[in-house]
Amino acid sequence: MADTGTAYDGPAQPDARVDGLGEAVDRFVRTRVIPSETVLDAGGKEAAAALARLRTEARAAGLWALPLPAELGGGGLTFRRYAALAEAEGASDHGPAALGSAPLLDVTMLERHGTARVREEYLERLVAGSMRTCYAMTEPDVPGTDPLRTATRAEARADGGWSVSGRKWFTSGAARADLVTVLARTGGATGDREGLSLLLVPTASPGFRVVRELPVLGAAGQYEIELDRVRVPADHLLGTGGDALAIAGERLALGRTLRCLRWLGQARRAFDLMAERAATRSGSRGPLAEHQLVQQHVFDALLALRTTRPLVHEAVALIAAGRDARTEVGLAKVAAARMLQQVTDSAIQVHGAAGLGPDTALPSLFRGGRAARILDGPDELHITSVARRGLRGYGRGHGAATRG
After folding, report:
1. 119-147: per-residue pLDDT in tens?
2. What pTM value is reported for the model?
3. Is residue 43 a contact partner of residue 303, using CB atoms and an 8 Å limit?
4. Helix axes of 79-89 and 244-280: crossing angle, nearest 10 degrees
5. Which of 64, 186, 271, 312 is deepest in the core (most CB within 10 A)?
6. What DSSP character marks residue 377?
7. Model confidence over 48-71: pLDDT tens digits?
8. Nearest to 270, CA basis, from 335, 343, 341
9. Dihedral sign, CA of 264, 269, 274, 279?
10. Do 140 and 257 contact (CB within 8 A), yes or no?
């Protein structure tokens, strides 16, 4: 990623800049991860070997698992401090896995809500990168935005454990995961808020099956899975049981904000490609950078980047402080998804036909931008939720705060 100077960089967390981690992460992703993307995207043995090599290099560089607990082998950065690095790390979809921060959501969830056995058995292995997890919420006939209709059920067994049956899809990384967190109904009827629980299911368990891969606009990594009376130990229930919505809410707030940070990094990458193309490409009418319509693309992309970034970091600050961030996360998620698609689209337009081909990352970045408007809840869900909170208190003779 080329230096875009004061035109884009914007504010950053100063402590991360002082100790050089921001620059080190940016350099590692730019010089080590991005050149390996073609191999990593292809999957298979070569991809596994390339990822293992990158992880070894990240450890040697002191960049491994920076936001994960130090007592478990991570870097021990607070979420707010890590947020200053997440943009650079997320410029490549493979950055978090290569640098060991990918399990952040699962480690946080298991630390807060896992039993003593779960914490002892899985946390250090997750941080070390020796095991992989995934999260299964959405079902073929039940969107993740309507969890009360979850059809997957977990029946109590006489030995105190659970028997889980159901089908999930668009489960990221399921084919390579060792452990999957499954949303299932342990009580109540369809539509009840009570009775939904999260269970940790080892994928080696009899009855667990990967049904098929579900490419997203041609990209691999998403899967449909089936659970047929899979036995789950009693101590693999997260929380106290029946509290899945609260646990999932914590996870989603953090996860959506992490995605926004990484989308900013990907948009910066697209912006850099566009700016480099405009500055170095000339035609019969002179350099592209001197064309007003190209300048319009650059301006609009820059405006989108610079106005989205503060929204995302406002959500970061509230989550780090343990405050209600639903409005800020909703605003940031919609803004960041739109921004990534807009910036990447402008970059493709400036590249012309070259922006559609395999020689740049722009097709992949554009695909990510389009998917971003659906991932972690479609934009429409967030728009409705934020608007409802913003309207509370109006029309009853008194004002209302804009933060809810």
Report:
1. 999 999 999 999 999 999 999 988 878 89
2. 0.90
3. no
4. 40
5. 312
6. S
7. 999 999 999 999 999 999 999 999
8. 343
9. positive
10. no
